[in-house]
Amino acid sequence: MTAKNEKDILLLNSDLNFKSLLEIIESVPSRKRTISIDTQERDKNFRDVLMHLYEWHAMLERWYREGMDEDQPFMPAPGYKWSSIKLLNMKIWEGYQDVKLNQAVKKVKLSHGRVMDLINLHTNEEIMTKKYYKWTKTSNLYSYFEANTSSHYIWAIKKCEVIADCIQKIEMDKSVK
């Protein structure tokens, strides 16, 4: 058996983490999945988490498209700097409050697939070599792909576990009363 390269590991971890995320959501009875929890955190339900991932996938796709067209993409988004990421994330949250959970699931599944396709377009060398593409500046494609897939999914898993646990507690409290 040959050792897997970083690209293969990224694809594997991204898919495994994405599936784990969906399993957490699916572990909650479907009629309860839209419950919002009482929290000071920005993301109060599964939809909020999924649409956050979806929008970051969309930004990554934009960066990639512009970068591969020899443009220098504005990151993270026009009008925002990395230092104002909390404001950007709040704008994202506000923009998706009317989206239904089933729409959010469909959107994030499609965007996940598109990002996996982008990863698959490249060799391990292209993904791992710093400065291989001018638009990644001193970094490599891996850092962009990994931050918006595997690592971001770990964050989402943690958020969704809290939401699922809170929903379960809310339902247990209702049954006790």
From TrEMBL:
Q: Which residues form a coiled coil?
A: none
Q: Which domain of life is it from?
A: Bacteria
Q: Return the Pfam families for the record.
A: DUF1706
* PANTHER family linked to this entry: HYPOTHETICAL CYTOSOLIC PROTEIN (PTHR40658:SF4), PTHR40658
Name of the protein in its database record = ClbS/DfsB family four-helix bundle protein
Give the organism, scientific name.
Metabacillus indicus
